[in-house]
Amino acid sequence: MDNVEKILSNVLELQSMPTVFLEALDNIQDPNVNAMKISNIISKDIALTTKLLRLVNSAYYGFPQEITQVNNAIALLGFRTVKDIIMMMALKPMMSSQSGKELWEHSIRCAYASQLLAESIMDIPAEEVFTIGLLHDIGRVLFQLYDIESFDEVSRLSEMGIDKLVVEEDVFGVDHTLVGEAFAIKENLPPIISSTIRYHHNPLDENAPVLSKIVYLAEMITQKKPKSPILENSFLEQLGIEIEDLDELRAEIFEKTDIVINALK
Q1: What pTM value is reported for the model?
Q2: How many CB atoms lie within 10 A of CB 176?
Q3: What is the pLDDT of residues 96-137, one digit of tens each?
Q4: Contact at 8 Å (CB) between 136 and 196?
Q5: What would the pLDDT profile of 42-95 be if each residue is shown by its tens digit?
Q6: C-alpha distance from residue 90 to each of 68, 107, 181 (Å)
Q7: Most buried of 72, 102, 142, 169 (most Cβ within 10 A)?
Q8: Domains annotated on the chain, with CATH
Q9: 3-class SS string, the chain
């Protein structure tokens, strides 16, 4: 058994998404489903209900009146956003350490940044991009579940400036992009998701999908301690992306996602 299979086989036995989450996500895919049915499913989970209402009443959305019923919240937010919220909450219990919590927050910021960049720069449907942004570091989540001490050591060394992929290869025998890709394939996620996960650190590879450029840029923008400058203009030109002020965009993304993260904590 290679390192990827060893990690996946151990991790997949440890974690499973709550039944209510799975039921809601499954029903959201039904084109004939209505808000009341999804509301009845979500209402079975107190934590999910509470955080959904907390988020819909937050400054992020700015609705003029307080929303107190789940079915009204779903009608206002739409199924796509409700799906995103469920997925963000589903990831959170898997990240119990301090570095895991930071990874959860980073994943949310990267998802929103990916969505913003895709809509404003490449005119790509936001739903798919948000999901990819949220799951781009799923390999790191699996590392954390597999061996928390080694995961924290990788985080510590990468914060010192050592290349994260190199450290992961040394510690785990494989890096998080390959583990994440294997997980996505094992879970029968669309090929665009597994492929973008694999190449999100190497968007200029000839096999990299276009979305890997978006996720790579989103990841660089949402780093806890970004480089200065975040990216050189020459590299942005290679990506085929033009942004006037990355620092201003980063500030905007953090301001918005701080609200989301605080509502879901």
Answers
A1: 0.90
A2: 28
A3: 677 788 899 999 999 999 999 988 877 666 667 999 999 999
A4: yes
A5: 999 999 999 999 999 999 999 999 999 999 999 999 999 999 999 999 888 877
A6: 23, 12, 19
A7: 142
A8: 3-264 (1.10.3210.10)
A9: CCHHHHHHHHHHHHCCCCHHHHHHHHHHCCCCCCHHHHHHHHCCCHHHHHHHHHHHCCCCCCCCCCCCCHHHHHHHHCHHHHHHHHHHHHHHHHCCCHHHHHHHHHHHHHHHHHHHHHHHHHCCCHHHHHHHHHHCCHHHHHHHHHCHHHHHHHHHHHHCCCCHHHHHHHHHCCCHHHHHHHHHHHCCCCHHHHHHHHHCCCCCCCCCCHHHHHHHHHHHHCCCCCCCCCCCHHHHHHHCCCCCCHHHHHHHHHHHHHHHHHHHC
Please count the other Cβ atoms lying within 10 Å of the Cβ belonging to residue 195: 19
What span, in angstroms and rounded, lies between the C-alpha atoms of 251 and 6? 40
What pLDDT digit, counting tens, does each position of 189-229 carry? 889 999 999 999 999 999 999 899 999 999 999 998 888 88
Instruction: Go through 39-72 and write b for each residue having 16 or more CB atoms within 10 A of its CB, e for each that does not.
Output: bebbeebeebbebbbebbbeebbeeeeebeebbb
Beta carbons within 10 angstroms of residue 97's beta carbon: 14
- For tokens 């999910």, name the residue: 48
Angle at 63 between CA 27 and CA 48, to 5 degrees: 35
How many angstroms separate the CA atoms of 226 and 242, rounded? 19
Task: Give φ, ψ of 39 to 5 degrees.
Answer: -60, -45
Handedness of CA 127, 116, 145, 49 (dihedral sign): negative
Q: Distance from CA of residue 100 to its chain's centroid?
A: 13
Contacts of 213 by beta carbon, 8 Å cutoff, 6+ apart: 203, 239, 240, 241
Do you know the residue count of the chain?
265
